[in-house]
Amino acid sequence: MRFLKGIISKNKILKNFSVLIVSNAFSQILFMLSSIKIARSLTPVLFGAYNLLFVHVLIFGGLASLGLRNIIIRSVARDNGIVKRVFFISIILRAIGFLLSIILFCTYFILYPSYDDFLFILVILCILSNLLFDLSESVAFGLEKMEFSGVIILLNALFWFLTILLIPKSMFTLHLIFSLFVFFNSLKTIIYFFSIYKAGFIKGFILEHFEKRQIIEFSKLSFPYYYLDLFTLISNQIPLLFLEYRSGVAQIGFFNIASKVLLPITLVLNTALAAIFPNISRLFITNYKLFIRTVKVIFILITLFGIVGAFWATLFRSEIINLLYGKKYISSSLVLGYQCWYVAIYSLVCLIGTILGAINKQKELSYLSIVCTIIQVPILWYGSKYGAQYLSAAFLAATIIIFIIHLFVINSYLKNELSYIFYFKITALFFIGYFVSLFTPVNLSFFYRIIFFVLIPILGGYFVFKKYKYFLKRILYVN
């Protein structure tokens, strides 16, 4: 324990990652437990409508974000002296984005109303709350002060869980549950802002002088990320609207059941990417050799974690869905089998995107996103016609294609520092894990599946550690 504590205290990436992962792990467990009670208390149709509200929040919130998050983090990480200027410029740009987004949302709602006016207003409030929270969090992440997020998100999840737990099942309605969620979400945003203000990250409310030219320059930097966000929404969230339109709102519930089960895996992967971005952005400028070593180790670690998590979820997919959500959602088990491998492979796509952002290739990243979206959308549109299972399979197939494209792109920008053999080995590990887990008979003894699950990750982890232990040790002690 003393050895591990020493490593974490010396390594800023590990320190930030450990703070976020501990708090976010507990938070996501609490959110997942809350979703279980909500799903069991509502019908599949109402649960699908509940998830549709969040789809709208993500889509129109993404439209309002203007791609500022990574630019804020990168700018603050490279120069702590411009925090206040970046903050106020971002507020102005986010306000413009929010207004444009609400105009589009109102137009969409008038043309295709999916719920009543009260829920419509709550969606708008949730979008605004998320935008302000993201702005405050981006400033804190740029300063590599990630403990604020950990504590506040954990407390928010705890109070949300206790509230859901105490509400009698007979009182569960779509309006009550979503109203409570928006209330806690807004409270979380207010607390976060005043926490970073009190900590001195943003000193005073007096506007720092900046010119119109600086706002334009900042927005130009963010536009490639904005294009990326938009095309990510088209490829990740818009297909759920396809699913609602072509297969019914209940299918959104079945689809999102699997997504919620995979929250622990998604949590760790997203937290890792958030923690490494400021560090590798700086290393690219200050120490290119260490930057390459760090990228290589991160590739290995995220690959291993993704494979182990997906392997576990696929082997026990039926038991997981039945235990957590009950028999009325059992059709989500195969959805889970496809989605867990989609998440594992997509995490590497996101890692490549993070690396491209760190090396100032956000414009090229946006062009790459356009190409990948053009490839993905027809596949996802076709899959949505046949329900949540086929849409999940379509996500997996499309992501494999764009992953291969991303490998060629990142290899060209890193000037072949990571060989094609290295990428081939990572890809081969995914294919082996996928076919072994998915084609393992579902009626195989539970005992044998546990042995299977334990042995394969241990053998794979041992092989990778023996081969890359030199790089792992260097990264753990240097940084």
Question: How does the SSE layout of this entry go?
Answer:
Elements: H1 2-10, H2 12-41, H3 44-65, H4 69-78, H5 83-111, H6 117-142, H7 147-166, H8 174-198, H9 212-236, H10 238-247, H11 249-261, H12 263-286, H13 288-315, H14 317-325, H15 332-358, H16 362-384, H17 388-413, H18 420-438, H19 446-477
Helix pairs in contact: 1-2, 2-7, 2-12, 3-5, 3-6, 3-9, 3-11, 4-6, 4-12, 5-6, 5-9, 6-8, 7-8, 9-16, 10-11, 10-16, 11-15, 11-17, 12-13, 12-15, 13-15, 13-18, 13-19, 14-15, 15-17, 16-17
Description:
The protein has helices at about 1-10, 10-40, 45-65, 70-80, 85-110, 115-140, 145-165, 175-200, 210-235, 240-245, 250-260, 265-285, 290-315, 315-325, 330-360, 360-385, 390-415, 420-440, 445-475. Helix 5 runs antiparallel to helix 6 and helix 14 crosses helix 15 (about 330-360). Mean pLDDT is about 80; it is low at about 1-10 and about 475-479. About 85% of the residues lie in helices and about 0% in strands. The protein is mainly alpha-helical. The chain has 19 helices and no strands.
- What's the number of extended β-strand segments? 0
| Strand and helix order | HHHHHHHHHHHHHHHHHHH
| Beta content | under 5%
Distance between the termini: 20 Å
Output the number of helix runs. Answer: 19
Shape: globular
Helix and strand content put the structural class at mainly alpha
Kindly state the percentage of residues in helix: over 70%
Radius of gyration equals: 22 Å
**Mean of residue pLDDT values:** 78
Major beta sheet, specifics?
A: none
As residue ranges, the low-confidence spans are 1-11, 475-479
